[in-house]
Specification:
globular, 2 domains, 73% helix, 142 residues, mainly alpha, 6 helices
Length: 142
């Protein structure tokens, strides 16, 4: 069972929201991670690679800052096999392609802009997640 951590979850949500607002306010760009990564892949789609790289570098270096500040990292447990992780990653990649963006882009940024497409996508993500968890935990017994 996953341990619920309301303070850490709220803090993380606030930081994600703040980063999204700051990116929109300063550069007028949406903080969708799949779009950022897509803009870094060759061939370059625009001259905006600098801010994309800086945002992604911040996401990668933040754990090092946490380690330096606290002296430890949170325990991460992945109760799935490598095969399941690979299948899940492929399914997420397909979903990002067909859904015109990732969950962070639609859920955090798109819904904040009241985008009908993002609201529909986020509702689809949440319903599908609920059904998947129910089937895996209660039908399959995983």
């Amino acid at each position: 069972m996953t341990e619920f951590t309301p303070v850490l979850s709220l803090t993380g949500g606030i930081l994600i929201g703040l980063a999204s607002v700051m990116l929109m306010a300063t550069l007028g760009r949406i903080a969708g991670i799949s779009g950022m990564i897509g803009g870094l892949l060759p061939p370059p789609t625009s001259g905006e690679w600098g801010w994309r790289l800086a945002f992604l570098a911040g996401m990668i270096t933040a754990p090092a800052v946490l380690l330096a500040a606290t002296g430890s990292m949170p325990a991460i447990e992945v109760p799935s096999s490598t095969g399941m992780l690979v299948i899940g990653g492929l399914l997420v990649g397909i979903g990002v392609s067909y859904g015109s963006g990732c969950t962070s882009g639609h859920g955090v940024c798109g819904m904040a802009r009241l985008s009908a497409r993002s609201i529909a996508a986020t509702l689809t993500f949440m319903l599908t997640t609920g059904v998947t968890v129910f089937v895996i935990r209660h039908v399959i017994g995983g």
